[in-house]
Amino acid sequence: MIKNRTLVIIPAYNEEKSIAHVIGEIQHYVPTADVVVVNDGSKDRTAEVAKWAGAKVITMPFNVGIGGGMQTGYLYAQRNGYDYAVQIDADGQHNAADLPKLLKAAENNDLVIGSRYVTKTAYSSTLMRRIGMIFFSNVVTMLTHQKFTDTTSGYRVANKKVIDLYCNYYPMDYPEVEAIVYLKYKGCTLHEVSTEMRNRMEGESSINAFKSVYYMFKVTLSLFMNALRFSKARV
Predict the structure, then answer these.
(1) Which residues does the UniProt record annotate as the domain Glycosyltransferase 2-like (predicted)?
(2) Class of residue 167 by CB neighbours under 10 A (exposed 0-12, middle 13-18, buried 19+)
(3) pLDDT tens digit string along 59-97?
């Protein structure tokens, strides 16, 4: 039985067609959790639908991106005394049926990542994405001396220690990979749990081939710069 207070954070931009289903799944598998949707400047009815489905809604005045949206959610979790904060996508790709086992693993770890590659799953990605995932897994493993298989996964559970750290610092642009390195340099324990990932229920991903190349370049540069900065801070 999950006794601690859990907040599920859903960053959302123009997800009116899938958001109610995502909230409903969470309420089914973890009925004790509270759900907050960070409506990141959506131009559709995302906020209205999320409220109707039973979530609290924080509406940003303009689009701040995934990093700004998630840090807003962590600040909400900290200020309202939650023990765990869950990050889950609004497009329905993450299966809430996996959430209880992620929360169970979080009892003994500071951050738990839902991974598509710990064991073989039905998930398949494009060649470009697969190359990027393997590349970042190798870079992060080298920088942290811990093997990670799915550094870009946005399905995560953070405990109070991580919530506090993320309230002080959270990468703004394509943050998932950098956030792992940051926590390792802060002495946190991280663990991956096998999860399934589905195709998007509605709409299209904002990550195209051009953005994938930009993403790899930008994040790689940030990883090495932050690794140098955090390692100096520990001396």
Answers:
(1) 8-131
(2) middle
(3) 999 999 999 999 999 999 999 999 999 999 999 999 999
96 lies in some domain: yes
Q: Which residue has the tokens 């393997």?
A: 134
Which positions ≥6 away from 7 have C-beta within 8 Å? Answer: 33, 34, 35, 36, 73, 76, 77, 80, 82, 84, 85, 86
pTM: 0.89
For residue 170, the domain's CATH number is 3.90.550.10
Owning domain of residue 66: 6-233
| Residue whose C-alpha is closest to residue 5's, from 85, 71, 73, 74 | 85
What's the pLDDT tens digit per position in 154-164? Answer: 999 999 999 99
Q: How many domains does the chain have?
A: 1
SS3 67: helix
Residue 138 contacts residue 151 (beta carbons within 8 Å): no
Q: Would you say residue 70 lies in a domain?
A: yes
Q: What is the C-alpha separation between 150 and 166, in angstroms, rounded?
A: 20
Q: Please return the burial class of 157, using the count of CB atoms within 10 Å of its CB with bins 0-12, 13-18 and 19+.
A: buried
